[in-house]
Amino acid sequence: MKLVVLGAGTSTGVPRIGNDWGDCDPTEPKNRRTRVAIMVEGDDGSRILVDTPTDLRQQFLSCDIDRVDAVLWTHDHADHCHGIDDLRPLRYGRAGPIPGYATSETVRRLRQRFGYVFAGEHGYHTICALDNLDRVRMICGMGVKHCQMPHGPAQSTAYRFDQGGKSVGYATDFSEITSDMVSLFDRVDVLVVDCLRRKPHPTHAHLEMSLELIEACRVGQGVLTHLDKSMDYATLAAETPAHVQPAYDGLEIVV
Questions:
Q1: pLDDT at residue 159 in the model
Q2: pLDDT (mean) for 183-205
Q3: Taking a C-beta distance cutoff of 8 angstroms, is the pair 188, 217 a contact?
Q4: What's the pLDDT tens digit per position in 114-162?
Q5: Can you tell me the mean pLDDT for 51-59?
Q6: pTM of the model
Q7: Nearest Cα to 12, choosing from 73, 77, 62?
Q8: Pick from 181, 182, 188: nearest CA to 219
Q9: How many angstroms separate the first and last alpha carbons of the chain?
Q10: What structural domains and CATH numbers belong to the chain?
């Protein structure tokens, strides 16, 4: 399998509007972060996209992506779903809509907000066929497992992808480590983990919590994502264990 980090930034990206880089070195390209998303590619080239962030068009162009075979959503917060219309060009030439999955509550919210995407409108084709995540165990030849994570007062969906004895986990937007998360990610080869900043935050993991999850799950390689402007790439890379690295836009890992 192959993991592609499409975006590694927090909800406002880095730099923030106003050219605010915070503690991040503006001369380091890996500090320029769009909103979080990943793509997991199977051994047959099938591609699963996780989330449709507001920077999705630019991410597709930067990573030379012109096709995805399924879409999963972690939750319905704007930075994770408001780029959904950028799926439209990927619908061109397909025999049917792109399969999409989320938990029942996220399905309900997405349908309410983006009805035209899932039902078509004014003669336009349906872009994505949305279904409940509980109905599936395999997508694009990859085993897919999930659990819910606390995200402050909300929830976010964690994912694990398995194929050919290899595994990738994705845990973004969580504020507490649960036993379900530890069980889901046990011994994954690569785990991409929410890591907003060093100080605790009410709705996101901070560095200490992120490293705690990586160690609790006995992960082969940890990747820190959803990084804000306080998390300079080089500084963070120098203080993390050897098997943990900060994510950056365009990072590819072959598992």
A1: 98
A2: 98
A3: yes
A4: 999 999 877 788 999 999 999 899 999 999 999 999 999 999 999 999 9
A5: 98
A6: 0.97
A7: 77
A8: 188
A9: 5
A10: 2-254 (3.60.15.10)
Q: In 3-state terms, the chain is what percent helix, strand and coil (to 5)?
A: 25, 35, 45
Residue from 41, 42, 45, 68 nearest 56 by CA:
68
pLDDT tens column, 208-240 = 999 999 999 999 999 999 999 999 999 999 999
- Token duo for residue 234: 């080089």
Residue 133: both structure tokens together? 């995540």
89-94: long-range contacts at Cβ-Cβ below 8 A with a sequence spacing of 24 or more?
Answer: 90/66, 91/125, 91/127, 91/128
- One DSSP character per residue, 128-173 reads EEEEEGGG-SEETTEEEEEEEEEETTEEEEEEEEEETTEEEEEE-S
The residue type found at 2 is: K
> What contacts 10, CB < 8 A, 6 or more positions away?
33, 35, 36, 79, 196, 226, 227, 228, 229
